[in-house]
């Protein structure tokens, strides 16, 4: 008799054999520079808590205040009965922070791409130009669209120019989507060149700034602010699950764009609104970023320090232009072994392997935070050095 679910165990076994099976650890403490796992304390170098806001008392206080006033759950989608005044308050503050006319808040950064991409380019005659290293959420959002997807080589402006020219006579809408910061290597999209090319060819420009929010630009306002491209990028897509330290996604742009997304985007029409505690915590994060650049500057200082020290030891840290610090190991099994040895030494830094990154480029992606002290990072460097020498990654 056939066993229809047998493939599950077979594929899991194959992943284990190939060194691609991931160990998922459980945190027993708040997210922070140090965390507790299995009753022990570890230096945390693998979260996206860029500014250390996940456990900030100002966010916690705002959550308590708003939960007491508004409750917890929205109880409905935004278009029926789920839009509450805190949602509007957050959207107005995000728009002001981003320097846009309007913004819409959705459930996650993943949902933000599902909100924008199929909604703006959903027809069979439409074209989507997508960077070859775009995030999985962008890829999936493109797949859900009926549009033809044209991939251009990563940050290769000559290839993008060629493909725009080859498709200049397309009948439908044209949309270009790119990550702002590419999270696996830490490099930044060539947004000024992209905008210039797209303006010549009548292409809508959307940038997913998930790893740029709270990191790039004045006080963390993002990649559009970083390159002074206000008014020339049609859609800024973002997440509040990284530098903001909370959860939720957003899209910012013109008032007519946001009105269109409210009426047409499926995550807004068919999935319940963001919870009140999430909204409240995000409000606190925006207020903190508007008040001071201290946390953003500390993040960059920490990132520069770690890259410099690991590079001096001989580690391959690729070509990161942001605080993201990839340490390229090579084979998945070696990266997993490296991560396990770091864990034994008190450093929580997970291995990133295929399919998240191409085969042969498995790595430890060290994610610094403004919450880390210099002593924390020196401890990390010492442990990387010890494991690197033990495994022959560095001499």
From TrEMBL:
- Which Pfam families does the entry mention? Aminotran_1_2
Q: Which domain of life is it from?
A: Bacteria
Q: Which UniProt keywords apply?
A: Pyridoxal phosphate, Transferase
Domain Aminotransferase class I/classII large, first and last residues per copy: 41-383
What are the recorded GO MF terms, alphabetically?
A: pyridoxal phosphate binding; transferase activity
InterPro entries, sorted: Aminotrans_II_pyridoxalP_BS, Aminotransferase_I/II_large, AON_synthase_class-II, AONS_Archaea/Firmicutes, PyrdxlP-dep_Trfase, PyrdxlP-dep_Trfase_major, PyrdxlP-dep_Trfase_small
Give cofactor(s), names only: pyridoxal 5'-phosphate
Q: Would I find rRNA-binding among this entry's keywords?
A: no
Cited PANTHER family: CLASS II AMINOTRANSFERASE/8-AMINO-7-OXONONANOATE SYNTHASE, LD36009P
**Subunit structure, as described in the record:** Homodimer.
Protein family? Belongs to the class-II pyridoxal-phosphate-dependent aminotransferase family.
Protein name as annotated: Glycine C-acetyltransferase
- Per the UniProt record, the source organism is Aminivibrio pyruvatiphilus
């Amino acid at each position: 008799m056939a066993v229809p679910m047998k493939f599950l165990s077979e594929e899991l076994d194959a992943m284990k054999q190939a060194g691609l099976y991931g160990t998922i650890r459980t945190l027993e403490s708040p997210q922070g520079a140090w965390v507790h796992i299995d009753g022990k304390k570890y230096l945390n170098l693998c979260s996206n808590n860029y500014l250390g806001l996940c456990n900030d008392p100002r966010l916690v206080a705002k959550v308590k205040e708003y939960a007491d006033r508004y409750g917890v759950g929205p109880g409905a989608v935004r278009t029926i009965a789920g839009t509450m005044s805190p949602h509007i308050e957050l959207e107005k503050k995000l728009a002001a922070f981003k320097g846009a006319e309007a913004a819409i808040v959705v459930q996650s950064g993943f949902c933000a791409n599902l909100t924008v991409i199929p909604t703006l380019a959903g027809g069979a005659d439409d074209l989507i130009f997508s960077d070859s290293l775009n995030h999985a959420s962008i890829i999936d959002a493109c797949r859900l669209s009926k549009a033809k997807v044209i991939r251009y080589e990563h940050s290769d402006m000559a290839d993008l120019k060629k493909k725009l020219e080859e498709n200049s006579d397309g009948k439908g809408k044209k949309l270009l989507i790119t990550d702002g910061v590419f999270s696996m290597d830490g490099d930044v999209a060539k947004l000024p060149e992209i905008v210039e090319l797209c303006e010549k060819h009548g292409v809508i420009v959307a940038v997913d700034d998930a790893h740029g929010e709270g990191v790039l630009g004045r006080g963390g306002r993002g990649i559009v602010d970083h390159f002074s491209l206000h008014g020339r990028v049609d859609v800024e897509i973002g997440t509040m699950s990284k530098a903001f330290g909370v959860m939720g996604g957003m899209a910012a742009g013109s008032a007519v764009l946001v009105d269109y997304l409210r009426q047409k985007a499926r995550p807004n029409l068919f999935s319940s609104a963001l919870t009140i505690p999430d909204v409240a915590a995000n409000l606190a994060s925006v207020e903190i970023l508007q008040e001071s650049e201290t946390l953003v500057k500390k993040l960059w200082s920490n990132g520069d320090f770690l890259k410099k020290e690991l590079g001096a030891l001989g580690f391959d840290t690729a070509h990161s232009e942001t605080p993201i610090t990839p340490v390229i190991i090579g084979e998945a099994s070696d990266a997993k072994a490296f991560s396990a040895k770091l864990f034994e030494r008190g450093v929580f830094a997970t291995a990133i392997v295929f399919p998240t990154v191409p085969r042969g480029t498995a790595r430890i992606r060290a994610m610094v935070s403004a919450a880390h002290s210099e002593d924390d990072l020196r401890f990390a460097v010492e442990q990387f050095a010890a494991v690197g020498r033990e495994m022959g990654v560095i001499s």
